[in-house]
Amino acid sequence: MADPPTQTSILQSLRNWGEHSVPPTLLATLITAQHARPFQPLPMMFPPVLLFSSYLNLSGFQTDAGGITAAWSGLYALLAMRRKQGIKNKFSVRGVVRGASLALCGANVVGGGLAYVFGRREKEEEAK
Fold first, then answer.
1. 35 phi and psi, to 5 degrees?
2. What is the largest CA-CA distance in the chain?
3. Which residues contact 29 (CB under 8 A, 6 or more apart)?
4. Membrane-spanning regions, if any (predicted)?
5. Are 26 and 97 spatial neighbours (Cβ–Cβ below 8 Å)?
6. CB-based burial of residue 19 (10 Å sphere; 0-12 exposed, 13-18 middle, 19+ buried)?
7. Distance between the two ends of the chain, CA-based, in angstroms?
8. What is the distance between the alpha carbons of residues 107 and 64, in angstroms, rounded to a whole number?
9. What Å distances lie between residue 95 and 56, 86, 89, 106, 125, CA to CA?
10. Closest by Cα among 64, 72, 52 to 19
């Protein structure tokens, strides 16, 4: 007899989000789309770090990658929220991309933070 499918809690879903490699890559893509033309040097420092976080995740360091993603996503959200945007600009293509990147930053901060706080380092635990 097959067991019924188990439901995951919201916290477990957010932790899985933080342990996945796609969200930092997607955020790096959105940041590049916003700040590559005209080139803005300060915001363009974030995509390489987020892509490195995705690389770490694929290399087996999900806990550390979640922490890096959470920290740098939070820093970018603080940087992006400094700019004021008029109501007319919020509904343009650039405004929608900015809103999507800020929403993704929020999800990355929560998910990556949970992945970092509750993550296990199997190699360190095996050594003990």
1. -115, 5
2. 61
3. 47
4. 55-79, 100-119
5. no
6. buried
7. 39
8. 17
9. 31, 10, 6, 17, 45
10. 64
Cα–Cα distance between 32 and 67 in angstroms, integer? 21
C-beta neighbour count of 1 within 10 angstroms: 3
Query: Two tokens at 71?
Result: 């920290």
Of residues 93 and 52, the one with the higher pLDDT is 52
pLDDT tens sequence across 53-102: 999 999 999 999 999 999 999 999 999 999 877 777 788 888 899 999 99
CA distance to 42, 45, 68, 71, 90, per residue, from 75 (Å): 11, 11, 11, 6, 21
As a whole number, the mean pLDDT across the chain is 89
Domain range annotation of the chain: 10-119
Q: Which structure tokens are listed for 91?
A: 């509904």
Tokens of 68: 């890096």
